[in-house]
Amino acid sequence: MNKKSLSLILIVFCFVTGFVSAQQPEEKRLKIEITVKDGNKSITSPVRTATFSFTKPAASSTDTSQKNYYLAIDFEKQDLNILRAFAKNKNGLDGQLTMVDIYGKTPARKLEFKGATLDALSDQLNGDYSSSYFSLSCNLVIIDGITIE
Fold first, then answer.
1. FRET label pair with 19: which of 29, 109, 113, 120, CA 20 to 30 Å apart?
2. Where are the domains of the chain?
């Protein structure tokens, strides 16, 4: 093989390996965790995504037991300790969701919840991917120190 062919192969190889490595997924920038208080112990688990929603009760509603705060949490994998805690505590659990930018470029976020009960559970399992999704209803939610009412 002559020098030109070898040089050309080397250049193509470097280009292809550089292109492939550029396509690798970037390390997660945000670290999201849920912590629930089960009696006198705390249980913490990593979270893939979390969504909060609030629905203002109807003006004519006098039902104060109605829960209007909802959390949807997508876990990276099923955490049996958290599942067990929600299954045995029918009156609800207190806890918090925290989000931290591992690069320190955006401020940390903290979402506290009170009296959360498990409304729905979905578990997905397959050979390459697993996920667990909780839908929680809460008595109260506090976002970064602001009580939502």
1. 29
2. 30-147
pLDDT tens for each residue of the chain, 149 residues long: 565 665 556 565 555 555 544 444 556 788 999 999 998 999 999 999 999 998 887 766 566 666 789 999 999 888 899 999 999 998 999 999 999 999 888 999 999 999 999 999 988 877 777 788 999 999 999 999 999 88
The answer to whether 134 touches 73, Cβ cutoff 8 Å, is yes
CA–CA gap between residue 137 and residue 124 (Å, rounded): 21
* Tokens coding 28: 């997660």
- Three-state secondary-structure class, residue 142: strand
pTM over 0.90: no
Is 30-147 a CATH 2.30.110.20 domain?
yes
**Of 53, 57, 55, whose CA–CA distance to 113 is shortest?**
53
